[in-house]
Amino acid sequence: MKRTLTTPISEQEARDLHVGDVIYITGTMFTARDEAHLTMLEHGAPFPMEGLALYHCGPVAKKDGDGWRIVSAGPTTSARMEMFEDRFLEKFLPRVVVGKGGMGEKTLAALCKVGAVYTHYTGGAGALAARAISDVTNVHWLSELGIPEAVWVLSVKEFGPLTVTMDSHGESLYDTLNKNVRKNMQAIHERIERRE
Questions:
Q1: CA separation for the pair 78, 94 (Å, rounded)
Q2: Alpha-carbon distance 155 to 25, whole Å?
Q3: 159: closest CA among 51, 7, 1?
Q4: How far apart are CA 54 and CA 10, in angstroms?
Q5: Helix extents (H) in 93-138
Q6: Is 28 exposed, middle or buried (0-12, 13-18, 19+ CB in 10 A)?
Q7: For the structural domain made of 3-195, what CATH number should be given?
Q8: What pLDDT is recorded for position 196?
Q9: H-helix segments, the chain
């Protein structure tokens, strides 16, 4: 079943999600990479972020008349934001984080505390992602940070599919995967040692 969440997303809606769920986002999404996270933590958010979707993305944007058009919007590696994502979540309360590659224990603890989820979007599908972006409603710190690092505020329609890989119940698909990989590696080593 296709499940679409419309922003602002409530804490309860986020807590109702579990690892493995597939969702789409309609409404407001904003981008933030390393520099944008740090800028907002130091200076505050330029708009209310509670209930919105945070996208780890440095888009390719093209000037279009008086406004902008997003040409490509693929996810960036989320682990880069691990050092400050917990503080960001607690301060600004976005309910869905979109990225790739997963995040660590600090972020997982913050997701549980505030009621939010981390979702995975396929890398290399930036042009496909851009199709779900209907409008650039604003851009912040463009001259200071440049196009990839600026905070882009986007109107999106059924942005996805997004797979919930970390939820507010302490579950992480990445932890499960790592445990399974370690278990399989151990079994492979044992078989090799028996043959020697």
A1: 15
A2: 10
A3: 7
A4: 14
A5: 105-114, 126-131
A6: buried
A7: 3.20.130.10
A8: 67
A9: 11-15, 34-43, 82-92, 105-114, 126-131, 142-145, 173-195
**How many other CB atoms are there within 10 angstroms of residue 43's CB atom?**
9
User: What phi-psi label fits residue 99: left (phi over 0), alpha (psi between -120 and 50 degrees) or beta?
Assistant: beta
125 burial via Cβ count (<10 Å: 0-12, 13-18, 19+): middle
Per the listing, tokens 């224990």 go with: 105
Burial 99-117 (b: 16+ CB within 10 A, else e): bbebbbeebbebbbebbbb
Q: Is residue 177's pLDDT more than 70?
A: no
Q: What is the mean pLDDT of residues 164-192?
A: 74
The residues carrying an active-site annotation are: 37
76-110 pLDDT tens trace: 999 999 999 999 999 999 999 999 999 999 999 99
**For 168, left (φ over 0), alpha (ψ -120 to 50), or beta?**
alpha
| Integer angstrom CA distances of residue 56 from 64, 78, 117, 128, 190 | 23, 6, 14, 16, 40
Enter the pTM of the model.
0.89
96 has which bridge partners?
A: 53, 117
**Contact (Cβ atoms closer than 8 angstroms) between residue 98 and residue 123:** no
Alpha-carbon gap, residue 180 to 57, rounded angstroms: 29
